[in-house]
Predict the 3D structure of the following.
Amino acid sequence: MYKIVDIFYSLQGEGTYVGVPSIFVRFYGCNLGCYFCDDEKHKGNFEVLSQEELLEKIEGFTCKRVVITGGEPSIYNLNSLIEFLQERGYYVCAESNGYELSNIKQADWITYSPKDWNEIQSDGFSEYKFIVSTVSEVDKILALKTDKPIYIQPENHFASANVVNVKFCIDFVKANPHLKLSVQLHKYLGVE
């Protein structure tokens, strides 16, 4: 049984799969309380669903890509759910702050967005996504030695872009061309 806040169909707005139609499954709860969290829904109401009930809801969409998100989905062991969806033809992505990556290790693609830059992990995921503002310690990003994609995402306002942070991130990526910009496309398009 899974605590689900929301299931919706939209476009992926971040990272490698930006622009790709995806079914988002938002789990309840998080181990952190980030002041810049752009989705407080994970703290609200939820429904408890079995794997079969969750499948029934996502089968209503004409898409075979699922993004498991939150809150923080890795506070739950979701590997059996991920395998259940994969066995039915779904490509499963997960977004995590890295709390317990082993709980989502079966996902086809994992976006790791560390919040403690003093303890950045190096294994168990597919890409990095750093939330960056003008006061971020970006030297810690530059110190990473990795072949994984590193996305720089401006710390934005809840429902809109923070133009100061966007400009800072653009300049940072241009000065360091091994990095990539991720702008939360969904906020610019006005979709969920």
Remarks:
- The first helix runs from residue 51 to 58.
